[in-house]
Amino acid sequence: MPDFDLAVIGAGAAGLSVTAVAAQLGLRVALIERERMGGDCLNTGCVPSKALLAAAHAVQEAQAAGRFGLRIAEPVVDWDAVQAHVQGVIAGIAPMDSEARFTAIGATVLRGHARFTGPDVLAVDGRRLRARRIVVAAGSRAAVPAIPGLADVPHMTNADIFGLPERPAHLLILGGGPVGLEMAQAHAGLGCRVTVVEAERIAGRDDAELVDGLRTALQQQGIAILEGAQVIRVEAGPALVLAGGRRVAGSHLLVAVGRRPNIEALGLDAGGVRAGPGGIATDAGLRSLTNRRVFAVGDIADPAGIGPRAFTHVGSYHASIVIRRAVFRLPARVDYAALPRVIYTAPELAQVGLTEAEARAAGHAIRILRWPLSENDRAQAERRPEGLAKLVVTPKGRVLGAGLLGHHAGEMIGTWTLAIARKVPLSALAGMIVPYPTLAEAPKRAAGSFFAASLFAARTKRLVRLLARLP
């Protein structure tokens, strides 16, 4: 008999989600973690980054209070207290991810390094265990590019930027993706000089029109952004040497150029599990292509023909698929058509579905519907008119994608995620009742603009005149 019905490698968001459901259903579950419970998200990713951003945004709000006719003294940043705030947030959430909680719901928590020694056998720091099903949720880590000189120059990734003993005088950020931009705004808001260096354009996966607005906002906050800047060498200082000879020097260097799956130390060959640069190769249902006992979830999963997605909410989504397949033996497969993502700057940039460029590249006939936040009463009342709601729809009104640039955009994108996932007609979205005044009116007004041409067409006007003659 196997020792466990299910063994889960990794206690990050994806692994914890699988374990929580399986253990509460009465299965014998082993949860194996070699480092901190909660994984990257809790300890060095989503949670501390949003806590640091919250502090920075509070400073920026105080500095901008003059727009309401208020006089507030320039805020003083107590760096040690800000770091204590970040660690306090982590500590407040940690009990939900703790060993004690998962032991209490019936899981066996093993602390140590897990590696395959057979198709259904794991070694955990010398202990041997067998499981009917194994879920690999070992996550990912920050990628460090092979740039000459980088290995010899002190630098940080998301794993060690939180809890710095001193405030950086000038933070250089290599990479203009979500992590780079969020950390740029967080540190700029807390009084650091910040320069972002990006080889292509910032937020490269997001809609270019919305990114234009984000770029402007960040630059107005004092963040220097260098795009199309190829780093050819890193020198002591630290300093980034760009193609063409320009040298950009700072006091600290953060590398934020993407993620790499943690596959090297798992003994995947011994388990008959195939993996590549994107992670463990799986079918669309997250089962290993070469070992039917094994599933992969979260950052380490590379579904066939779809590719990895390094978001915490994807890990939770993957967990639901694996529970359906491995526990209930039901069909389930990954579908990213309605996968939302958010850059948590101020303003936020939220996207779901296809961008305009992606829709055109896929050959879709599309219409673009826009509504600027400058025409939204709530945005005007709060003196935050920057931003745009942008919808990508078919000529018949099916929503293919939605992008929102504005404050609290991440809180609004859920409606449009559901609209794409459930194929909600644009007419229903344009006709829904939203509270006034709210920012959510902006995407609703964008949806309504789809019908404006036919509503005010000459034919409609003739019909209205005819109806007006009726008693």
UniProtKB/TrEMBL annotation:
Keyword Nucleotide-binding attributed: yes
Oxidoreductase is among the record's keywords: yes
Pyridine nucleotide-disulphide oxidoreductase dimerisation domain sequence ranges: 340-446
GO molecular function: flavin adenine dinucleotide binding; NAD(P)H dehydrogenase (quinone) activity; oxidoreductase activity, acting on a sulfur group of donors, NAD(P) as acceptor
Similarity comment: family membership: Belongs to the class-I pyridine nucleotide-disulfide oxidoreductase family.
UniProt organism field: Limobrevibacterium gyesilva
Keyword field: Disulfide bond, FAD, Flavoprotein, NAD, NADP, Nucleotide-binding, Oxidoreductase, Redox-active center
Protein name, entry field: FAD-dependent oxidoreductase
